[in-house]
Every structure is written in C-alpha cells, then in structure tokens.
Amino acid sequence: MRLQSKGLGKVTLPFRLGESRITRGDDCIVFEGRITEKKVNWPYRGELEDKDIVNFMKLANQRPVVRYVAEQAGVKLYGRMFLAACRLLVSPFRRKTENTAKEKG
User: Both 27 and 78 in a single domain?
Assistant: First the structure.
C-alpha cells in the first residue's frame, strides 16, 4: 500500500501493513507502526472497525481486485486468502459449538 500526504509534496511512502503491530481495541482492531523512508520518520496508528473489515472483504471480491491479485500473486494466493476468510467466518460458530459441548460434557 502507498500513502500520500499533501504535506509531503509529491512524496509517496510505502505502507507495509504486514509490519504493523496489531492489537485488539475495545471496539476495533488497532494497527500501529512507523514509516522511516525518504527522510520521513512517521509514526502511524489506524483502527479498523467491524464494518471496515466487511468492506475490505467486499472489495476483495470485486472482479478488478480478483483479476489484479491473480495476475500479480497468482491464483494460489487468492485461494489461500479465500480459505482464510472462510475460516474467519466459521470460527465464531466453531467456538460456540466447542463451548456448548464442554458445558454438556
């Protein structure tokens, strides 16, 4: 991902989300880090709410995004992303079933 700011002029900074510290806030996912490139030392903090994550998933399902990911990273990566999303969606139900089984047993 790349970030631009009017305060930086025409400088575009790389934003490596994978290098962020990710924690869970009260009502969001928090990612924090620091961009140190092109004479910039910029700490950042972002917060993703549940609706943001759903919107990212919707975005990832759009044809131009699917096509881009398939061309850039290969279909195999997109398949892994899809399976990870499926596991994410199923995990709350799995935990609920496991907890119910423990209560009965």
Answer: no
